[in-house]
Amino acid sequence: MRQSLLIKHVLPFFNWFALMILIAVGIDYLLHYFHWVFVGRYLGYVGTFVIIFSFVYSLRKRKLIQVGSPKQLLQTHEYMAWAGSIMIIVHAGIHFNALLPWLALLMLLINVASGLVGKYLLKSANEALAAKRKALIDSGNDKESTDRKLFFDAIMVDAMKKWRVVHLPISLLLALLSLVHIVSVIMFSK
Protein backbone atom coordinates (compact mmCIF):
# COMPACT_ATOMS: atom_id res chain seq x y z
CA MET A 1 0.00 0.00 0.00
CA ARG A 2 2.80 2.46 0.86
CA GLN A 3 4.55 1.85 -2.45
CA SER A 4 1.28 2.37 -4.29
CA LEU A 5 0.67 5.65 -2.43
CA LEU A 6 4.24 6.75 -3.09
CA ILE A 7 4.10 5.92 -6.77
CA LYS A 8 0.57 7.17 -7.31
CA HIS A 9 0.64 10.48 -5.43
CA VAL A 10 4.03 11.53 -4.09
CA LEU A 11 6.11 10.72 -7.17
CA PRO A 12 3.94 12.76 -9.57
CA PHE A 13 4.36 15.80 -7.28
CA PHE A 14 8.15 15.51 -7.36
CA ASN A 15 8.12 14.74 -11.09
CA TRP A 16 6.14 17.87 -11.97
CA PHE A 17 8.23 20.08 -9.69
CA ALA A 18 11.55 18.65 -10.92
CA LEU A 19 10.40 18.83 -14.54
CA MET A 20 9.52 22.50 -14.07
CA ILE A 21 13.03 23.25 -12.75
CA LEU A 22 14.77 21.14 -15.40
CA ILE A 23 12.86 22.74 -18.27
CA ALA A 24 13.65 26.22 -16.91
CA VAL A 25 17.36 25.40 -16.55
CA GLY A 26 17.37 23.87 -20.03
CA ILE A 27 15.75 26.92 -21.61
CA ASP A 28 18.14 29.21 -19.69
CA TYR A 29 21.08 27.16 -20.92
CA LEU A 30 19.89 27.36 -24.54
CA LEU A 31 19.34 31.11 -24.30
CA HIS A 32 22.90 31.54 -23.02
CA TYR A 33 24.30 29.12 -25.59
CA PHE A 34 22.72 30.99 -28.51
CA HIS A 35 23.42 34.42 -26.93
CA TRP A 36 19.71 35.19 -26.65
CA VAL A 37 19.82 36.06 -22.95
CA PHE A 38 17.67 39.17 -23.59
CA VAL A 39 14.71 36.85 -24.31
CA GLY A 40 14.64 35.97 -20.61
CA ARG A 41 13.59 39.50 -19.75
CA TYR A 42 10.50 39.20 -21.94
CA LEU A 43 9.66 35.75 -20.59
CA GLY A 44 9.04 37.45 -17.23
CA TYR A 45 6.27 39.54 -18.81
CA VAL A 46 4.78 36.62 -20.72
CA GLY A 47 4.97 34.30 -17.70
CA THR A 48 3.27 36.87 -15.49
CA PHE A 49 0.42 37.32 -17.97
CA VAL A 50 0.03 33.54 -18.37
CA ILE A 51 -0.24 33.14 -14.60
CA ILE A 52 -2.69 36.04 -14.31
CA PHE A 53 -4.81 34.54 -17.09
CA SER A 54 -4.82 31.20 -15.25
CA PHE A 55 -6.85 32.85 -12.49
CA VAL A 56 -9.97 32.73 -14.67
CA TYR A 57 -10.57 29.53 -12.69
CA SER A 58 -10.69 31.49 -9.43
CA LEU A 59 -13.16 33.94 -10.93
CA ARG A 60 -15.38 31.05 -12.06
CA LYS A 61 -15.09 29.28 -8.71
CA ARG A 62 -16.20 32.41 -6.88
CA LYS A 63 -19.04 32.83 -9.40
CA LEU A 64 -17.74 36.18 -10.64
CA ILE A 65 -17.99 34.80 -14.17
CA GLN A 66 -20.25 32.07 -15.55
CA VAL A 67 -18.12 30.94 -18.51
CA GLY A 68 -16.51 27.52 -18.68
CA SER A 69 -16.51 24.27 -16.77
CA PRO A 70 -14.91 24.55 -13.32
CA LYS A 71 -13.09 21.22 -13.77
CA GLN A 72 -11.69 22.26 -17.15
CA LEU A 73 -10.74 25.70 -15.84
CA LEU A 74 -8.95 24.09 -12.87
CA GLN A 75 -6.86 21.98 -15.23
CA THR A 76 -6.14 25.05 -17.34
CA HIS A 77 -5.14 26.94 -14.17
CA GLU A 78 -2.77 24.16 -13.12
CA TYR A 79 -1.00 23.90 -16.46
CA MET A 80 -0.89 27.62 -17.24
CA ALA A 81 0.43 28.49 -13.77
CA TRP A 82 3.05 25.76 -14.17
CA ALA A 83 4.08 26.98 -17.64
CA GLY A 84 4.09 30.62 -16.52
CA SER A 85 6.27 29.63 -13.57
CA ILE A 86 8.79 28.08 -15.95
CA MET A 87 8.96 31.34 -17.89
CA ILE A 88 9.45 33.36 -14.70
CA ILE A 89 12.19 31.01 -13.48
CA VAL A 90 13.98 31.50 -16.80
CA HIS A 91 13.42 35.25 -16.44
CA ALA A 92 15.02 35.17 -12.98
CA GLY A 93 17.95 33.15 -14.27
CA ILE A 94 20.66 31.83 -12.03
CA HIS A 95 22.01 35.29 -11.33
CA PHE A 96 21.90 37.05 -8.00
CA ASN A 97 21.27 40.73 -8.74
CA ALA A 98 18.89 41.81 -5.98
CA LEU A 99 17.07 40.39 -2.99
CA LEU A 100 13.49 41.32 -3.96
CA PRO A 101 13.36 39.30 -7.20
CA TRP A 102 14.82 36.29 -5.41
CA LEU A 103 12.21 36.56 -2.65
CA ALA A 104 9.51 36.68 -5.32
CA LEU A 105 11.08 33.65 -7.04
CA LEU A 106 11.20 31.77 -3.73
CA MET A 107 7.50 32.55 -3.15
CA LEU A 108 6.77 31.37 -6.68
CA LEU A 109 8.44 28.02 -5.99
CA ILE A 110 6.62 27.68 -2.65
CA ASN A 111 3.34 28.58 -4.34
CA VAL A 112 3.80 25.98 -7.08
CA ALA A 113 4.77 23.39 -4.46
CA SER A 114 1.70 24.18 -2.34
CA GLY A 115 -0.52 23.92 -5.41
CA LEU A 116 0.94 20.55 -6.35
CA VAL A 117 0.69 19.28 -2.78
CA GLY A 118 -2.95 20.33 -2.65
CA LYS A 119 -3.67 18.69 -5.97
CA TYR A 120 -2.09 15.33 -5.17
CA LEU A 121 -2.89 15.17 -1.44
CA LEU A 122 -6.54 16.00 -1.93
CA LYS A 123 -6.84 13.52 -4.78
CA SER A 124 -5.27 10.80 -2.62
CA ALA A 125 -7.51 11.55 0.36
CA ASN A 126 -10.69 11.54 -1.73
CA GLU A 127 -9.75 8.25 -3.39
CA ALA A 128 -8.92 6.61 -0.04
CA LEU A 129 -12.21 7.76 1.50
CA ALA A 130 -14.22 6.53 -1.49
CA ALA A 131 -12.44 3.15 -1.38
CA LYS A 132 -13.12 2.75 2.36
CA ARG A 133 -16.77 3.73 1.86
CA LYS A 134 -17.17 1.21 -0.97
CA ALA A 135 -15.48 -1.56 1.05
CA LEU A 136 -17.74 -0.94 4.05
CA ILE A 137 -20.90 -0.89 1.95
CA ASP A 138 -19.81 -4.00 0.03
CA SER A 139 -19.26 -5.81 3.34
CA GLY A 140 -22.90 -5.25 4.29
CA ASN A 141 -22.81 -2.05 6.38
CA ASP A 142 -25.75 0.30 6.03
CA LYS A 143 -25.28 3.99 5.20
CA GLU A 144 -25.60 5.17 8.80
CA SER A 145 -23.01 2.74 10.22
CA THR A 146 -20.69 3.45 7.28
CA ASP A 147 -20.93 7.17 7.96
CA ARG A 148 -20.19 6.59 11.67
CA LYS A 149 -17.14 4.45 10.88
CA LEU A 150 -15.84 7.01 8.37
CA PHE A 151 -16.61 10.06 10.50
CA PHE A 152 -13.00 10.92 11.38
CA ASP A 153 -11.75 10.09 7.88
CA ALA A 154 -14.41 12.38 6.41
CA ILE A 155 -13.38 15.16 8.81
CA MET A 156 -9.75 14.68 7.73
CA VAL A 157 -10.67 14.92 4.04
CA ASP A 158 -12.71 18.06 4.73
CA ALA A 159 -9.72 19.54 6.58
CA MET A 160 -7.46 18.68 3.64
CA LYS A 161 -9.88 20.44 1.30
CA LYS A 162 -8.99 23.59 3.20
CA TRP A 163 -5.37 23.49 1.97
CA ARG A 164 -6.36 26.51 -0.09
CA VAL A 165 -6.37 28.47 3.17
CA VAL A 166 -2.57 28.08 3.01
CA HIS A 167 -2.26 28.32 -0.78
CA LEU A 168 -4.17 31.61 -1.09
CA PRO A 169 -2.00 33.69 1.30
CA ILE A 170 1.12 32.33 -0.38
CA SER A 171 -0.35 33.40 -3.74
CA LEU A 172 -1.16 36.84 -2.38
CA LEU A 173 2.35 37.27 -0.97
CA LEU A 174 3.77 36.20 -4.34
CA ALA A 175 1.56 38.76 -6.06
CA LEU A 176 2.66 41.49 -3.64
CA LEU A 177 6.37 40.71 -4.03
CA SER A 178 5.96 40.53 -7.81
CA LEU A 179 4.15 43.86 -7.89
CA VAL A 180 6.85 45.53 -5.75
CA HIS A 181 9.49 44.01 -8.05
CA ILE A 182 7.74 45.33 -11.17
CA VAL A 183 7.23 48.80 -9.67
CA SER A 184 10.86 48.99 -8.55
CA VAL A 185 12.08 47.96 -12.01
CA ILE A 186 9.92 50.65 -13.60
CA MET A 187 11.06 53.27 -11.08
CA PHE A 188 14.77 52.47 -11.20
CA SER A 189 15.29 51.33 -14.80
CA LYS A 190 17.62 53.41 -16.91
Low-confidence stretches: none
Rg result: 21 Å
User: What's the N-to-C terminus distance?
Assistant: 59 Å
Helix content estimate: over 70%
Please tell me the total number of domains.
2
> What is the count of helical runs?
8
Average pLDDT value?
86
Q: If you had to describe this structure to a student in words, what would you say it looks like?
A:
- The chain is mainly α.
- It has two domains: 1-95, no CATH class; 99-190.
- The protein is built from eight helices and no strands.
- The radius of gyration is 21 Å and the shape is elongated.
- Helix 6 (143-149) packs across helix 7 (151-160).
How would you summarize the topology of this molecule?
Elements: H1 2-33, H2 38-54, H3 56-61, H4 70-92, H5 99-138, H6 143-149, H7 151-160, H8 164-188
Helix pairs in contact: 1-4, 1-5, 2-4, 4-5, 5-7, 5-8, 6-7
How would you summarize what this structure contains?
The protein is mostly helical. The chain is built from eight helices and no strands. Helices cover 84% and strands 0% of the residues.
Question: What labels describe this entry?
Answer:
190 residues, mainly alpha, 84% helix
